[in-house]
Specification:
The protein is mostly beta strands and about 120 residues long. Helices cover about 0% and strands about 55% of the residues. The chain contains no helices and eleven strands. Strands 2, 4, 5, 6, 9, 10 and 11 form a seven-stranded mixed sheet that branches. A four-stranded antiparallel sheet has the order 1-3-8-7, with no helix packed on it. The termini are far apart.
Length: about 120
């Protein structure tokens, strides 16, 4: 059974930093693409950052240059380093991975999320 457990959220002032962690069990993340999503109050969940099995990273434009996604396959953990935080970064941050079966159907796995609140 795949389980993703996030931690590291909290309340921080604008300009501050947080480091989120996502520990996976039931899978070896070394063979999975991993991602972070966030859901702001009253808005839909959106992708924030992703890292492929090979280590290639991608970011949504609003966080480029401020956030860094990384992975430690030995610890089966994915991180999201968030610097220069802004109030608009507030939301619930969730870890994600997925697999695709031979018919092309995608199965997503989500953590419970960790709350990030940035005060102005």
């Amino acid at each position: 059974q795949v389980q993703l457990v996030e931690s590291g959220g909290g309340l921080v002032q604008a300009g501050g930093s947080l480091r989120l962690s996502c520990v996976a069990s039931g899978i070896a993340i070394s063979i999975y693409d991993m991602g972070w999503y966030r859901q702001a109050p009253g808005k839909q969940r959106e992708p924030v950052a992703a890292i492929t099995r090979g280590g290639r990273t991608n970011y949504t434009d609003p966080v480029k240059g401020r956030f860094t996604i990384s992975r430690d396959n030995d610890k089966n953990t994915v991180y999201l380093q968030m610097n220069s935080l802004k109030p608009e970064d507030t939301g619930v941050y969730s870890c994600n991975t997925y697999h695709t079966d031979p018919l092309g159907r995608r199965y997503d796995y989500w953590g419970q999320g960790t709350q990030v609140a940035v005060s102005s």
